[in-house]
Amino acid sequence: AWNGSGSELLAAFKKFSVHGDHKAAATEMPGQKWAKLCKDCKIIDGKHVTSTDIDIIFSKLVPKTSRGMPYTDFKKALEMLAQKRFPDQSKEDALEATHKLIEGKEPANAGVTKVDKTGAVDRLTDTSRYTGSHKERFDGSGRGRGRHGREYLVENTGYVSSYRHAGTYDSKVKGEIHGIKNWGV
Questions:
Q1: Which residues form the signal peptide (predicted)?
Q2: d(Cα 21, Cα 48) in Å, to the nearest integer?
């Protein structure tokens, strides 16, 4: 016979009830925490018990006006799930096996958002990939050039910057004028 004290089950109930919300009371378990407990403790196996079953049991036991299920309803919910989760066992053995899945467990933190230190941040800070005026602010090793890289140096030549025929206007114009005069005479 199973000699579980129930205190470990109550401890797990409290831990899951307040997980992620330190202001929450450990006396009621909201539906979201109920689903997390069932998932983390492997009550949901995808074969006998699904997340839909979990939601249905919660809605049967907890009125819409309530914030969550109390511990007494939590134990009723486990009784309702036990036979479904362990169909080849007797009612008592199935309930014992279900309790053993939960006892001593804590909420898992898998899937909690972590700071991504690679990926987009690395791409955005890779100075070798900068284009346009931004690439002028860094040298080949990626170090900033300071004021020199930010200074906007204006060339007053009358040409657009990087124009490859800069300085050829006068010779073209003079050549054309002389050519026209000579051609017309």
A1: none
A2: 30
Distance of CA 158 to the CA centre of its chain: 53
Q: How far apart are CA 175 and CA 103, in angstroms?
A: 96
Q: Whose structure tokens read 């109920």?
A: 34
Sequential DSSP letters for 66-78: SSSEEHHHHHHHH
Amino acid identity of residue 178, one-letter, is H
Q: Which residues pair with 28 in a beta bridge?
A: 70
State the Cα angle at 142 between 136 and 146, rounded to 5°.
Answer: 55
For 15-34, what is the HEC assignment? HHHHCCCCCCCCCEECHHHH
Q: Dig out the tokens for 126 from the structure.
A: 């890779």
Long-range residue pairs from 106-112, CB within 8 A, at least 24 positions apart, any chain:
106/12, 106/15, 107/15, 107/16, 107/19, 107/20, 107/36, 107/37, 107/40, 108/40
Q: What is the pLDDT of residues 145-182, one digit of tens each?
A: 777 666 666 667 777 777 888 878 777 776 665 555 55
CA distance 6 to 70: 15
List, for residues 8-48, the tens digit of each pLDDT value. 888 888 888 888 777 777 788 888 889 999 998 989 888 88
